[in-house]
Amino acid sequence: QSFPLRKTSKPFLNVDQIPFQEPKKIPNIGLIKVQSELVDDYVGDVLKDLHILHSDDPAILSLVKRKAFDERIHWHSRKPIQHDFLRCNFYGEPKDPRTIEKYQKLKEYFQFYGQTLEGKISTTITAQNDKSKGLPSAGMKSHAPQECSFVSKTIWDRFAEHNKQGLKAKDGDKELQRWTEISSSIEEEITKNLTSGINMLDSFLKTCQNNSRKLTAEMVGLDACFGVWIEHCRKQGEQSKDLTIVVQMMRRVHNILGKYQELLQTGERQVIAKYFKYLGFKNLACSLDPTQIKGDDSKKFTKFTVGMGAARFQLQYMDHYLLREERNDPDPRVKHFIPDTWQRELLDAVDNNESAVIVAPTSSGKTYASYYCMEKVLKESNEGVIVYVAPTKALVNQVVATVYNRFTKALPEGLVVCGSFTRDYRTDTLNCQILVTVPQCLEILLLSPHQQGWANRIRYVIFDEVHCLGGEIGAEVWEHLLVMIRCPFLALSATISNPEHLTEWLQSVKEYWQHVDGTIDNTAPTVPQQDAKTCKRLKEKKKSYKVRLVLYDKRYNDLEKFVCSVNKDTFSIEKYHPCAALSVNHIQKYGIPSDLAFSPHESLQLYDTMAKSWNEWPRLRELDPEEFESFKNKTVITKNDATKYQEELKKELKNWIKQGQVCKANNVLKLLQPLHFYSSEKEKQENFPLFVDKLREMDKLPALFFLFNIKTVEKLAEKACDYLEDKQKNNEMKLSLMEENKLASKGKEVEDSTECGQFGSTNIPVEEMTDDAGFCVKKKKTRKRQESMSKELGAAKESPGKTYDNIHSKAKDGTLMGELEKIAKIFPDCTYANCKALNEETLQRVFKRADVVRKSHILKALAMRGIGYHHASLEPEGRQIVEMLFRMGFVKVVTATGSLALGINMPCKSVVFTEDSVYLDALNYRQMSGRAGRRGQDMTGSVYFYDIPLPKVEKLIRANVPELKGQFPLSVTLVLRLMLLTAKADDKGDAKAKALSVLKYSLLSFKKPKYMEMLKLYFLFSLQFLVQEGYLDKKGNPMGFAGLVSHLHYHEPANYLIMTFLLKGLFHKLLQSQKKDQLQFSEAQMESIVLVLANIFGRRYLPPSIIKQNQSFQQSEVLLENLPEDFAAAVNEYNNKIEEIFGCFLLTVSKMADMEEECRLPLSHLEFAGKMFNDSELVTHLMSCKENRTSVSPFACLSGNTDHGLFHAENVNSIMLRTIGVDASNIPVFWLEKFDCRGKKKILNAYALDFYRHGSLKAIAEENKIHEGEAFGMIKDFYLLIKSVSISLMQLYENKKDIVVLAFEQLSNNYCVKLEKSQDEFTNTDLPE
User: Is 635:580 a contact under the CB 8 Å cutoff?
Assistant: First the structure.
């Protein structure tokens, strides 16, 4: 069928003039050939097809020649880069006693922090080869290890084994004695109070080591529970029965038959079979003891039966107690638990020096392999290094604390076990064996040309949360690290949807390194001799290039989902079945998501709903729980059996749709839908404290409440605290009124009896009345004290910090915990804090850490109520306080942003999604919900959607996690850094191999030759820009300001702009009024520099709401002024150069487009340019616009766009061919102005300039509308930028008295002073060096 040409009275297809004036000629620049081995090896095959300029071309003759660049000084410390300097401890060699003391306190704190993560599990390690010859030794003294020598190893092993056997025998005797003492009391307690008695039994079973004794205890518990059930049934008669008693009975049966069946005696089997018969599980009784078949005494047991089959009962009521598949054979490599099969596979990979990609649910135990790997490297030698890469600084601190808690090792002087490296702080970075860092900082080390010796010592790299490889910001850095490292690695994640593809790509990278190692080993390295010896020793270790994939998709605890809404001042909390998120249309198109899991109870609910929807269902009987193959006559149904049932039901539901039973399938999904009511955002926030209290009543705390706005995170935490304080105040008033009435009543009795002279005739003895009167007086005093305390605690509503201060003042007489315990005892529902979780000393130690935190008084006041908040803008110390108190069980309620979900160890009972946001997607949903359900503590994890729209809930549950496809891997600055590495490296061969790995093995181009060709062309045109601008010479050697540009790589393209300003002398012009002898610059000049820097580096747009208000500001300008005209002209000139170079790149790369795909309609994928449409007038007209339209989209041609539009960056995204894989973000153009979707200009926030003028973080928060914590981080980043520029200019300018050098030095000092003073608003701490 052909498309007709639509005709109208106004012919819109016949255009008399072209909408856009087309230029006569499109620029066509030739490429300057760069003579470099890296360039020849990477792009030599495409150079022959491109136009290369001759050596006498004016473009080459006009190239700028500048001073060669080679960085030999640390830009941040101004110290020379040499190996002796690398042997530093805390920000350089600690000579100042105060610095040493600070360092020691930091280590002590990290050990304490680590103990809150795992308890005290420190291990002392001695290296197998405890010699340190290979390491540089500037007068080092070797400390003798504290462990015994290996000479008498076998003798010590015998002694240890003998002692172990003796201790085991003693422990067995103690267990027997303990069981003898408590067995009768357990039995009695179960009879009196089932829950309390079962808890006593479970606590004994946890500590008991002997299986025979465990069996005895389980049988005692079973007998007692059976007795309780019989008594209960007799009392209830025909009324409904409490089946929790039967649940506890079946728990005992599951443990007995699932764990100790080989120890079971015939008599015990008969007893269990008898109990089954009473419960109505005759099929199980007969399978366990065939003698039970005889006789028909069913009427005798009728009143004791549960009224359903055994399989249905286990699915309905015991779903959380079903036995999981667990191994019971210990692994000598693991001390504190018995690893699962997949965990052993991980340990095997580490033992074989293999790489591994591990995909397993949150809290499943995948991180243990990381610490096993660390221990292995520590034991091998003192030279090997293991690097742990974490996505956030918060996770860096957590891992450092864990390492301090786990490992101690006697090392030669100058070496330490653990170090860290982030942009904010560095401790023992290059003289540690375990380095914990973030991706950007490790990339700096690996691309440093003079740190190859250190890089060659790396034995393993661990990538935690490797799914960040698919993020939009910083993803390319993860990719660079994965391809640059030569050693094995572990890549951990809970949310990767295509792990096979990722593993295949990583295997290809390892094969590349296998080939490189085979060739490079034959060439002599040029690294220092001592490094060469170290590397040689490390290379003697067995190498493996295998990448193993370890998949584990089973959660230990089931996740139950609930939708919550406010309905007429009450909360509606409805269970949400996972199938309610599906639709027939979704199943037809995409199937049922593989990770959509049901609890056993939910599987039973799905079966019942399917049976209700189709009475004549052919498989009705087959899938009945009592008849299902994996359940039939099975005494103990396991979690694996329930999973098989779940998968069979999923398969059957899909079959219904395939067989045409769409209406019935749709009815099933509708019946599973919950009721839901919608409320306004204001109502949600007002009722939030009530919802938290509701969760406490339901015993669903501790809980994490996830939001996506920092201010709301803090606001809701304070709201919950205010609610508790008001509640306590109301309770105090009620108590006071009751006491007053009681006192008045007793006073009246005394007065009446006195007046009548009948005191002696009263029925109350004098002593008793005296006691009562004393009691009343005491209560009155208590009431006054409580009223005082009420005022103190209620004052936190106006100033939350007063609560803590007042309670703390009471601690002078008593203790902080003592006061809190009194509050909890009198008003238990007015605090979420668990006073029994820790002691006074521990609480004070944790709170002492809060002294350096802004608003520490609020944080402490919230903590005293069992509440906390957690977000990225909170100082590390503040986040750590909340994390520790939450893990210890003191704090039960934490509001948080998504940063907490990135690996932070804070497992909880419930997770609540409290706010909808565009950032709440399938990936974040899985990361956050995975925190719910603590293994060993909670039977299930609960996920609550607090008034989240149902369509959004459905989307979150059914959507798959996005596949890892790779981001655009290159940038102009990265090309410069790679050229700098290969040109100045100590080991040229190693440097070139690293650079080629980054260029050739990107995930984006894996198995995509066209993308590989596109990246080669991008590399060439980037080189063209770098050579033209004077950052590289024709041989690829760095020169001029290449060092400063590479240091500011994360600010591209602003890093090139500041160089443009310097080279054009614009800063000199700005400062030209300065007298020669005058070394101090005016504040106006300083502010002018800050204005320029804020326009290119400190860009943050104001929200439209502030602009609409047109309000006046007292301290801040808020609206950032535009760049001065000469600076703006320089920006436009820079943009023109970039657009010309990369416009030619786009023209060249467009030849690789898939034109068949380009001519398909984007949504319907209908091809309109095929031969079948040759007779269509419309298609003929559309395809006729070919002149000067070879590189733009056919759809863009309709608007009159031509190839020349590619030379204007603002047009690229709308007219570029879709199949190229390039967009405007890959072109380093600097947008001076940006516009919103309505065409209105966006206004920049003047926070950086405003802070320089008044130095107040509070003013920035109040007037510039930036959260104080976030503002401090942004301003600190801005200060570090100024410092970087200042130090680099000192190194690069030969004239140290140049006015620009002096001005930036003064600006750096001024900004630092203002930043330090701003901290006095909240704390007296100084900015770290």
Answer: no
Supply the Cα-derived Rg of the chain in whole angstroms: 36
The tokens for 269 are 């089997």
Cis status, amide bond into 625, omega within 30 of 0:
no
pTM listed for this prediction:
0.86
Q: Supply the DSSP symbol for 1218.
A: G
DSSP-assigned beta bridge partners for residue 943: 561, 911
**Three-class SS of 483-530:** HHCCCCEEEEECCCCCHHHHHHHHHHHHHHHHHHHHHHCCCCCCCCHH
* Tokens at 438, concatenated: 């973030």
Q: Give residues with Cβ within 8 angstroms of 1205, minimum separation 6.
A: 20, 1192, 1196, 1211, 1215
> Is 353 in contact with 541 (CB distance < 8 Å)?
yes
Taking CA atoms, 12 is separated from 6, 612, 1088, 1127, 1189, in Å, by 10, 59, 52, 44, 20
Backbone angles phi, psi at 31, to 5 degrees: -95, 140
The top-scoring range by mean pLDDT among 514-523, 1068-1077, 1178-1187, 1307-1316 is: 1307-1316
How many of the other CB atoms lie within 10 Å of CB of 964? 24
Distance CA 492, CA 19 (A): 54
Of 1195, 678, 648, 1210, the C-alpha closest to 949 is 678
Burial class, 420, CB count within 10 angstroms (exposed 0-12 / middle 13-18 / buried 19+): buried
CA atoms within 13 A on the CB side of 1242: 15
Contact 414, 136 (CB under 8 A): no
Question: Distances from the Cα of 562 to the Cαs of 19, 934, 953, 961, in angstroms?
Answer: 57, 18, 10, 21
CA 88, distance to chain mean position in Å, is 31
DSSP state at residue 1184: T
Spatial CB neighbours of 1173, under 8 Å, sequence gap ≥ 6: 2, 3, 1179
Q: pLDDT tens digits, residue range 1257-1302?
A: 889 988 888 988 889 889 999 998 998 888 888 877 778 788 899 9
Averaged pLDDT, 414-425: 87
559's enclosing H/E stretch is strand 558-567
Spell out the long-range contacts of 58-66 with Cβ–Cβ below 8 A and sequence spacing 24 or more. Answer: 59/29, 59/30, 59/32, 59/1028, 60/32, 60/1034, 63/32, 63/1027, 63/1028, 63/1030, 63/1033, 63/1034, 64/1029, 64/1030, 64/1040, 65/1030, 65/1033, 65/1039, 66/1030, 66/1039, 66/1040
- Check: CB of residue 552 under 8 Å from CB of residue 545: no
Report the distance separating Cα 58 and Cα 54, nearest Å: 9
The Cα 1024–Cα 1032 span in angstroms is: 9
The amino acid at 785: R
d(C-alpha 1140, C-alpha 1117), whole Å: 37
Is the pLDDT score of 508 beyond 50?
yes
Angle at 871 between CA 396 and CA 923, to 5 degrees: 80
Residue found by looking up tokens 């060096």 in the block: 1329
Q: Identify the H or E element spanning 911.
A: strand 910-913
How do residues 389-417 score in pLDDT, each as one tens digit? 999 888 999 999 999 988 888 888 888 99
Instruction: Supply the angle between the helices 310-317 and 244-259 in degrees, to the nearest 10.
Output: 100
**Residue, of 902 and 935, whose pLDDT is higher:** 902
- At 463 the pLDDT is 95
Query: Per the structure block, which two tokens stand in for 380?
Result: 């091998």
Before 689, cis peptide (omega within 30)? no
Q: How confident is the model at residue 963 (pLDDT cuts 50, 70, 90)?
A: confident
Structural tokens at position 1008: 């995509």
3-state secondary structure 124-182: EECCCECCCCCCCCCCCCCCCCCCCCCCCHHHHHHHHHHHHHHHHHHHHHHHHHHHHHH
Write the DSSP symbol of residue 1240: P
Any idea what DSSP says for residue 464? T
> Residue 986 in contact with residue 452, Cβ under 8 Å?
yes
pLDDT at 86: 43
